[in-house]
Amino acid sequence: MSRHIAGPEIERLIQLLARLPGLGPRSARRAALHLVKKKEALLEPLGKAFADAAQNVRVCATCGNIDTSDPCTVCCDATRDSGTLIVVEDVSDLWALERVGSVRAAYHVLGGRLSPLDGVGPEDLNIKQLLTRIEAGGVKEVILALNATVEGQTTAHYITDMLSGFDVRITRLAHGVPVGGELDYLDEGTLAAALQARTAL
Amino acid sequence: MSRHIAGPEIERLIQLLARLPGLGPRSARRAALHLVKKKEALLEPLGKAFADAAQNVRVCATCGNIDTSDPCTVCCDATRDSGTLIVVEDVSDLWALERVGSVRAAYHVLGGRLSPLDGVGPEDLNIKQLLTRIEAGGVKEVILALNATVEGQTTAHYITDMLSGFDVRITRLAHGVPVGGELDYLDEGTLAAALQARTAL
């Protein structure tokens, strides 16, 4: 706000809320007002939820996932097939794959992708721990579920090289036409990949 | 999330964040992940900001504004013209008018509008306190900055009736073409009002 029309606590609330992804200055104001109006129902519980999360959040030493326990909820889940390891760049990718729910595998979160321009090298990623897990045995397949970007694919190649000495099957996600997508709107790279990987009907 | 893939503290954070205006389930997940990744920079400060706000938030006994002090920041501002009282439905309207910043007046927040269908009568609004302020003297003009809806205008009429015995000028916001608006897209009611209230060039 240009002038002070609310107390410093509310101004600070707006400032911090505006730093959340998906909230701009306008929606942060709207959210802050909603919060102070619903003190018992929302402001206090959220304050407590924030404090609880801040106290308990940690990085899983096994897979690099961010959770409130270590080992994390996914690593602790005994119903998963620990012989299949899905390598993802980020926790958000793990959450996205879990929403699909079609594979009950273990995960490994790299915490980023190789990016020489941004100064991100192999030692900045959670790759050493990935090798340790595979050396420990039991892993039969590593699914590289990395982004289909140049950096994601560079990272995939690097990991493939590192794992070449191990007796594990290395796979990556298929490229192709998104379900519900129209050919006319697709880029040439995706179309070419979809043609090449065509399947028999 | 369909299955438990994160600890209960994170799941609860997502649930509560999704109840903020402007955040759906998807953006709440994104915000929660952003928060737990930025524990020191965002999660902890926001938790503290929520607790501070929850502890200090109160309704101003003078004007009905929601703030962290009573009297509120606006009522405490000695540079304002206390002879002009802008009556608004909600705190968000007060904030919106303050963003304009063209009038340095005092405010009065009704906390809603008359709505027989929703069971909101005059006694549910902050109208008695408005009369008390005007009886105390010093108010020369009351600007009814209520929404241009049926309920807002009903409320305006009611307040005009209540104030008929006092020696105060009662005004309302002008109707007309929004600045930057195109006539072709405007409703008939607005166009008729704009024609009727036309001004000489």
TrEMBL record, chains A, B:
This is Recombination protein RecR. It comes from the Bacteria. InterPro entries: DNA_Rcmb_RecR, Rcmb_RecR, Rcmb_RecR_Znf, TOPRIM_dom, TOPRIM_RecR. GO terms for molecular function: DNA binding; zinc ion binding. PROSITE patterns: RECR (PS01300), TOPRIM (PS50880). GO terms for biological process: DNA recombination; DNA repair. May play a role in DNA repair. It seems to be involved in an RecBC-independent recombinational process of DNA repair. It may act with RecF and RecO. The keyword DNA repair applies. A zinc finger (C4-type) spans 60-75. Residues 83-178 form the Toprim domain. PANTHER family: RECOMBINATION PROTEIN RECR (PTHR30446). The lineage of its organism: Bacteria, Pseudomonadati, Pseudomonadota, Alphaproteobacteria, Hyphomicrobiales. SUPFAM superfamilies: Recombination protein RecR. HAMAP family: RecR (MF_00017). The keyword DNA damage applies. Belongs to the RecR family. Keywords: DNA damage, DNA recombination, DNA repair, Metal-binding, Zinc, Zinc-finger.
